[in-house]
Amino acid sequence: MTLAIGLTGGIASGKSTVSNMFKDANIPVIDADVIAKQVVEAGEPAYHLVVETFGRSILKDDGAIDREKLGSIVFQNETERKKLNGIVHPAVRKEMLKQKEDAERRNEPAVVLDIPLLFESNLAHMADVTVVVYVDSQVQLERLMNRNQLTKQEAEWRIQSQLPLKDKKDKADEVIDNNGSLQSTKRQFEDLMKKWNLASK
Ligand SMILES: CC(C)(COP(=O)(O)OP(=O)(O)OC[C@H]1O[C@@H](n2cnc3c(N)ncnc32)[C@H](O)[C@@H]1O)[C@@H](O)C(=O)NCCC(=O)NCCS
Ligand SMILES: Nc1ncnc2c1ncn2[C@@H]1O[C@H](COP(=O)(O)OP(=O)(O)OP(=O)(O)O)[C@@H](O)[C@H]1O
Questions:
Q1: In which element (H, E) is residue 129 found?
Q2: Which regions of the chain are under pLDDT 50?
Q3: Whole-angstrom Cα distance, residue 2 to residue 103?
């Protein structure tokens, strides 16, 4: 049986940092952010719907979607965000399910479903166990502003577009606290791998 591990967190809480630990341990990772980028590449069905909905002003000169521009529209406006989610999420869900089934067919011991909106989009049923990468709100704000070069207001809009991390912490089966050093996060990851009997695989 393939253990489906639902990995989530808040924006900039350290989800990619932890998903890289799974990859280093040879556990395949299905990344919703990567798939969400692929399904809106020029020529894909969702691309045309995004352009129809948001207009050609969100395109770069080469015709690709300007993600920064689209982000600045949807992260401060719930109505617009819901429109984008309605276009992108069904295509992402379908592809994730396909890749999960591929991993099961290959008899992988485990597969990680890396989904930032795991709880917001009611996708927890896809996973056998859920893990949230948690940080305090001040740490989250600082890391997001630094990583994306955002103002405090822009970073707050992005954080507020998601379920509060402390609510995700209550919903998850397991919590990795990423407030401290990377070594501390790695130790918690290794403890979980032992718990799931995946340590040496
Ligand atoms: C708005 C877009 C164009 C901005 O692109 P950008 O390259 O700047 O960011 P990226 O896609 O890498 O996302 C970064 C993080 O933002 C957060 N985020 C992204 N989309 C959303 C959303 N609709 N609601 C809340 N948080 C979101 C997630 O934590 C994600 O990890 C892009 O995020 C997008 O298309 N979002 C809609 C699809 C979606 O929900 N993706 C998330 C996983 S399915
Ligand atoms: N324990 C840590 N100590 C210091 N910095 C960290 C730690 N963990 C992650 N970071 C940094 O915080 C930022 C966010 O981490 P990461 O990109 O892994 O988050 P994420 O949850 O995947 O974000 P998103 O969902 O927005 O893509 C990065 O710049 C990363 O280098």
A1: strand 129-134
A2: 201
A3: 8
Domains and CATH numbers, the chain: 3-195 (3.40.50.300)
Please give the distance, rounded to the nearest whole angstrom, from the Cα atom of residue 157 to the centre of ligand 2: 18
CB of 14 within 6 A of ligand 1: the answer is: no
Query: Separation of 74 CA from ligand 1 center, angstroms?
Result: 9
What's the pLDDT score for residue 199? 87
What predicted TM-score, i.e. pTM, was given to this entire model?
A: 0.95
Distance between CA atoms of residues 6 and 112, nearest Å: 6
| Ligand 1 atom nearest 92 alpha carbon | 44
ipTM of this complex: 0.95
Q: Give the pLDDT score at 21.
A: 98
- Within 6 Å (CB) of ligand 2, which residues are found? 9, 11-17, 33, 116, 143, 147, 178, 181-182, 185
Pocket test for ligand 2, best of 7, 24, 31, 143 (most atoms within 8 A of CB): 143
pLDDT digits (tens, 9 = 90+) for 16-52: 999 999 999 999 999 999 999 999 999 999 999 999 9
Contacts of 34 (CB under 8 A, 6+ apart): none
Residue nearest to atom 10 of ligand 1 (CA): 33
Distance, in Å, from the CA atom of 50 to the CA atom of 41, rounded to the nearest integer, reads 10
